[in-house]
Design a protein that fits this description.
Blueprint: E1 3-8, H1 15-27, E2 36-41, H2 47-54, E3 61-64, H3 81-86, E4 91-94, H4 97-102, H5 107-119, E5 123-128, H6 132-136, H7 140-152, E6 162-165, H8 180-194, E7 200-204, H9 212-216, E8 223-226, H10 233-245
Parallel strand pairs: 1-2, 1-8, 2-3, 3-4, 4-5, 5-6, 6-7, 7-8
Helix pairs in contact: 1-2, 5-7, 7-8
This protein binds phosphoenolpyruvate.
The site of phosphoenolpyruvate (PEP) has 15 residues, from β8.
Length: 246
């Protein structure tokens, strides 16, 4: 089974920093990551340079952190799926909780973006996850299944979809690291409903070198989606090596 390990850089890195990161990654003997699918999601400004530095034979996939559902048009400030594909993206992250919270992304727009991404042959990386209040009320499974169903509603072929379960209470510097027992029920439920159809179901939220292996050992976890711990390229490489050696 392929284990996915990737990082989204959020709104970080200049072109020079992005190039440095990609050059370091490109110089590593990537064969040692056999069985792993690494991916990085730079800001859209750096997609082209990162893709060019890594080159077509790299094991590392490059993706965008967002894309609009329309192919082109009067959508000031947005980028489309064909545009990010043109810049080298093969993955589009959709529905991260920060986009849902701060940029009014809804289940409906997430669904439109999934459809656009599938239509253009890219991989949708669909983020779902409940807030702390829902987790405390033991509502995580229902909440997450509802989000996944809404995201994939009417999508004829979900075989390219990668889901990322990212509980909001676990994300970012204010987040709490998840224990395997916190997330096992959600993975069981998502895999029971979607496991035969989607490509993979990842976990994200405060993943680091200390908790990556126990989280990957949870039944149904097909990979890790990492923020802060992989923003430094050495951190990403260490994480990939750790997963390869586990
Ligand atoms: C994220 O924001 O998607 C994320 C996983 O971040 P972090 O690993 O820093 O919690």
């Amino acid at each position: 089974m392929t284990i996915w390990v990737g990082t989204g850089w959020k709104m970080n890195k200049t072109l020079a920093q992005a190039r440095d990161y990609a050059e370091t990654l490109a110089a590593v003997e990537q064969e040692r990551w056999a069985g792993i699918q690494p991916f990085i999601l730079p800001p859209s400004t750096a997609l082209a340079v990162v893709s060019a530095v890594l080159g077509p034979r790299s094991r590392v996939l490059v993706g965008a952190q967002n894309a609009h559902w329309a192919d082109a048009g009067a959508w000031t400030g947005e980028v489309s799926v064909p545009q990010v594909a043109d810049a080298g993206a093969t993955i589009v992250e959709i529905g991260h909780s920060e986009r849902r919270t701060f940029f009014a992304e809804t289940d409906a727009t997430v669904n439109l973006k999934v459809k656009a991404t599938v239509r253009h042959g890219l991989t949708p990386l669909v983020c779902v996850g409940e807030p702390a209040s829902v987790f405390a009320a033991r509502g995580s499974v229902t909440y997450v299944l509802d989000e996944v169903r809404a995201a994939l509603q009417g999508v004829n072929d979900v075989s390219s979809v990668v889901l990322a379960y990212e509980p909001i209470w676990a994300i970012g510097s204010g987040g709490r690291e998840a224990e395997p027992a916190d997330i096992a029920d959600v993975f069981a439920a998502v895999q029971a409903e979607w496991g035969g159809s989607v490509q993979a179901v990842l976990f994200g939220g405060s993943v680091n070198l200390g908790n990556a292996v126990p989280i990957l050992a949870v039944e149904g976890v097909d990979g890790l989606f990492v923020g802060r711990a992989a923003w430094d390229v050495d951190g990403f490489i260490e994480l990939l090596d750790l997963v390869a050696a586990r």
